[in-house]
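[Help] Beginner question about ligand-bound structures

Sorry if this is basic. My supervisor gave me a protein sequence and a SMILES string for pyridoxal-5'-phosphate and asked me to "get the holo structure". I don't really know what that means in practice or what format the answer should be in. Inputs are pasted below exactly as I got them.
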Amino acid sequence: MTSSANVELALQADRHLWGHFSSLGRSIDGMPIIERGEGCYIWDNHGKRFLDGLAGLYATQVGYGRVELAKAAGAQAEKLSFFPIWTYAHPMAIELAARLASISPGDLNRVFFTSGGSEAVESAWKLARQYFKLIGQPLRTKVISRDLSYHGTSMGALSITGLASVKGPFEPLVPGAVKVTNTNAYRKPEWVTDDSYFAEEIEQAILREGPETIAAVFLEPVQNAGGCITPPAGYFQRVREICDTHGVLLVSDEVICAYGRLGAMFGSERLGYVPDIITSAKGLTSGYAPLGAMLVSDRIAEPFVDTDEQFLHGYTFAGHPVCCAVALANLDVFESEDLLSNVNNNEAVFRAALDDLSDLPIVGDVRGMGYFYGIELVKDQATKETFSDDEAHHLLRGFLSHRMAELGLICRADSRGDPVIQLAPPLIAGPAEFERINSVLRQALTEAMAESEKLSGRTP
Ligand SMILES: Cc1ncc(COP(=O)(O)O)c(C=O)c1O
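Answer (accepted):
No worries, everyone starts somewhere. Holo just means with the ligand present. The predicted complex, written as structure tokens, is below.
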């Protein structure tokens, strides 16, 4: 694209495009405009190439430029461009629902489609409420989730979200969303002497609120916000027991962790538990089309089967035939290229490439699993002293994001909790990409240390 065309594009973006979670009016020299992708790489409108270390936004599992997914979308659009699944069905939604049921854990055999992740989480809370009303437990309306967790932006999902910074402007939110401590081992509160505390706190919350009022616990297998927070051994097995004891539903929010991100089709499978509901989106279509899916156990669907009861909820474009056709083609690629094995065979190499950075004093912790890692940045490795909000903001938003992009790497620099860099590349990535990630991070983090010294006034 010519430079005058690029200037015009940037101007139009500046005037008309309202980016999500983005500042308005600063795009002209700051906001990258991404034009095309191929494999693990994307190119901006100036022809600069970037390694996409974040798979779009934890979505592009099979990589960019897949002709088979584009063809599936085109063919379906020609055949049946759209029809809703409100009192009708179409072959693509049926086929995809059956395929998801065949690969999902336990008795999760019913698939309720949505257009994305927030809608899947919203749907799960609403389904839990209606389910309990139908089985004669109408007081069960509340939900439990964890500090710093992100579950989406619609009002219900935002209430389940544990990030104060994104909730404030929209309060009051939906009542009855209770929070418990997340399982960040690196930032464990001093009162936690035993890792069993984290699951037991969920039981304490259930007992405190009154078990008869709790509908569901919403947990990600590996919590994204806060920086790829993994659970301690036995955590989910104990949470499962607690939920069963108190008749509470366990919702596994796998909007990021499903579809291979952790090296298994579902994050719950990797961590060895069977939830009552899985919420998913993103990697279901590798981001080639917007689609979410709530996978529901037969037990929860039961009060709706062969009765006059309907789940009184839906979205016009959920289960869109083009998106379902893309999802089916996407799952075909998972099988034909054995992407799960690629993740499992390379997980240790990826981890090692990140652990290798631990000699940099700014690297406090490396955590995660599969193709999903966070690097927590600290002021002092020995004391784990973190950056102030202003310092973190400057370091991540003002310096690192920009510098890593200059060096050709897209990843996430997140300062909503303690500052972290997050990496979640396409599942086709391998040692060459990890080496590149390592070298860019080493350079950018080394420069970030000098930047942080400058900030704290320790050097001129
Ligand atoms: C765990 C989790 N739940 C829900 C959502 C919301 O999904 P969406 O942005 O598709 O609405 C996200 C988004 O990143 C997520 O990570």
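A couple of things worth pointing out: The chain is about 40% helix and 15% strand. Residues 116-118, 121, 150-152, 220, 224, 253, 255-256, 281 surround pyridoxal-5'-phosphate (CB under 6 Å). Feel free to follow up in the thread.
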